[in-house]
Amino acid sequence: MRFLCLYKPAQAEGIRPAQEDMEEMGKFVEEMMRSGKLVATEGCLPSVKGARVRLANGKFGVVDGPFTESKELVAGFALLQTDSKEEAIELTKRFLKVAGDGETEIRQVYEAGDLDVPCSRDQVQGAQLVEK
């Protein structure tokens, strides 16, 4: 199973981590890559260098950064290969211990053969959260 993890830090955008924190993160990333659990990871540049593109009623809108809602900004991502969602959660907890306060959204990546995924937009919009 593959999971996309989107990291949203608690601190303001553009604050550089301390050198020792960067070294600790480097060791963690290296360990996860060697284990085969981490497929890819990257950090994002500040939102001032980005844009948001929206389509509504057939019309595109583009808003250049910076974006004001910093608590919703994605600062980086990781693509994990794990045996379960629970394992992805445990690896994410380890990541957050190194990265510091913030939030990571974990989303399973669709793979051919996934039978329990809704088939239509109506089913997706009507889906309810079910605790497993």
Automatic annotation (TrEMBL):
InterPro entries: Dimeric_a/b-barrel, YCII. Coiled coil: none annotated. SUPFAM superfamilies: Dimeric alpha+beta barrel. Gene3D superfamilies: Dimeric alpha+beta barrel (3.30.70.1060). It holds the Pfam family YCII. Residues 1-111 form the YCII-related domain. Belongs to the YciI family. PANTHER family: BLL0086 PROTEIN (PTHR35174:SF1), BLL7171 PROTEIN-RELATED (PTHR35174). This is YCII-related domain-containing protein. It comes from Alloacidobacterium dinghuense. The lineage of its organism: Bacteria, Pseudomonadati, Acidobacteriota, Terriglobia, Terriglobales.
